[in-house]
Amino acid sequence: MRLLLVETAPSSQRNSRLTAGLGYIASYVRHHIPDVVVQIIKGDPDWVRENVADFRPDIVGISTVSQYYPMAVRIADLCHERGAFVVIGGHHLSALPESMTSSMDIGVVGEGEDTMLDICRVFSNHGAQRSAYVELDGVVLQDKSGELLRSRRRALHKPLDDFPFPARDLMHIQPGESVGMITSRGCSYGCVFCASSAFWQSIRFHSAEYVVAEIKQIVEQHHTSHIYMWDDLFVADRKRVERILALLQQEPRLRRIRYSVTCRANLATDELARLLKEMNVVEAMFGLESMSPDTLAYLKPRVTVDQNREAVDVFHRNGIRVTGFFVIGSPQETREEIEQTLHFVRTAPLYRAEAYMLTPLPGTVVWNYAIERGLIDPEHVDWERLYIDNPENPENGIILSETMEPDVLRDYWRKFQRVRRRKDRINLLARIPQHITHLIRSPFEELALVRERLRTHRQGHI
Ligand code: B12
Question: Which domain holds residue 388?
Answer without folding.
Answer: 173-458
